[in-house]
Design goal:
5 strands; alpha/beta; about 200 residues; about 10% strand
């Protein structure tokens, strides 16, 4: 690894390359458990992005035995996971377009049977709902209670602009800590054991 501040190049696979190679890939879905439950690539294991460091030994073990593919909803979080792994000398690829691109190409997503009765929302949808609700709340309170509450709406708007410019999302980080978005210890341990068994 060099001292250069530049990020390492990210290896990518498109949907058709992934479909053709799926049996030989170890697929790790770095979305939240709720997003994973809403549909994931066949055979994907769920290790949320904020748990990748914790599972690093098992991920390294799997990467030594074959190609590792990191997946998220659109490709942003999985690219971040690839950068993190590259810093630790673990090669990994990311799926261009993520599970959204996979589904848009007409390929099936798996859903855990235990989650079939509970529809989970993607993180993007959760952020849109929360941001919209906060803007409406700020406007309503600003009109009905005191104009100073309009600062809430302005703050959310500023946060969305900052999120777009920096390609980060503080609201998603906060929402990711809610109970329905957190992995249960048993689920994470199961995914780590599956990686060890590769």
């Amino acid at each position: 690894m060099t001292g250069s501040p530049a990020s390492p190049a990210i290896v990518t696979l498109d949907v058709e390359q992934t479909r053709a190679r799926l049996p030989e890939l170890t697929v790790v879905d770095v979305r939240t458990p709720g997003e994973y439950a809403s549909g994931h690539l066949p055979g994907a294991l769920n290790i949320p992005l904020d748990q990748v460091r914790r599972a690093l030994p098992e991920i390294r073990h799997a990467a030594e035995r074959g190609t590792l593919l990191m997946v998220c909803a659109s490709g942003n979080r999985s690219a971040n996971a690839c950068r993190l792994l590259a810093e630790h000398g673990v090669p990994a690829a990311t799926l261009v377009g993520g599970t959204g691109g996979w589904a848009a190409a007409g390929h099936a997503l798996e859903r855990p049977a235990a989650c079939a009765t509970r529809a989970a929302w993607s993180m993007e949808r959760q952020v849109r709902l929360t941001a919209g609700a906060l803007v409406l709340l700020g406007l309503a309170l600003g009109l009905l209670v005191h104009p100073a509450f309009l600062i809430l709406s302005a703050g959310v708007a500023g946060g969305l602009v900052f999120s777009a410019v920096t390609d980060t999302c503080g609201m998603a980080a906060v929402l990711g800590r809610l109970p329905h978005n957190r992995p249960r210890a048993a689920d994470l341990d199961t995914a780590r054991a599956a990686l060890r068994a590769r």
